[in-house]
Amino acid sequence: MRATLVGLLRSRVGVALILAAIVLGAVGIARVFGDNRATGPSTGSYTAPSADPLFPASTAPDDGVVSAIPTVSPSVASGAATPAQVASAFAASWLQRTRTAKAWLDALRPHATQQLVDQLQGVDPEDVPDTRITGTVALVTYSESAVQAVIPLDSGRLVLRMVGPNGHWFVDGVDWERA
């Protein structure tokens, strides 16, 4: 008998039975000593929830997110180019793959932040995967001074992170997504 009991404890079935007994014991103890106000037989009919006196109904507008459509538009200084214009000019210069690396970077410089220009040092323009723009610039506005410009190209999309300090827009990051 003892050998059978020890063999059962060493088997997977024995361990599973012991664990099941522990879980059932814990649930039983919780039911006996726990709060049983919410338990009871269900009547099967629906009853509407009662008004909660701690949280009265409010007539004020909901301050939650209503839609993903931005409520702000990019700020543009008087006489400055719009984010779409800067993105188009940057993309046109970006796709000039036949230029020397210096001439290519010099063409990007007026449309880019110094940080991006520094990151693009040493990039060979021949490594740019696309050759032409195939659609119009689509802007995603994050704030008055931050947008993302998406430009469709012949084999993917050029995604530009743009910043607009004081309403003057510059490209601050470049990404390319294959179509």
Question: Would you give an account of this structure?
Answer:
It contains five helices and four strands. The protein is α+β, with helices and mostly antiparallel strands. The chain has a domain at 83-178: Nuclear Transport Factor 2, Chain: A, CATH 3.10.450.540. Strand 2 and strand 3 form a beta hairpin. Helix 1 crosses helix 2 (12-33). The N and C termini lie far apart (71 Å).
How are the SSEs ordered, and which strands pair?
Elements: H1 2-10, H2 12-33, H3 83-94, H4 101-108, H5 114-119, E1 138-143, E2 146-153, E3 156-163, E4 170-178
Antiparallel strand pairs: 1-2, 2-3, 3-4
Helix pairs in contact: 1-2
Number of helices: 5
Low-pLDDT residue spans: none
- Do you know the CATH architecture of the domain at 83-178? Roll
End-to-end Cα distance: 71 Å
The assigned structural class equals alpha+beta
Characterize the overall form: elongated
List keywords for this structure.
4 strands; four-stranded antiparallel β-sheet; Nuclear Transport Factor 2, Chain: A; 179 residues; 5 helices; 32% helix; 17% strand; alpha+beta
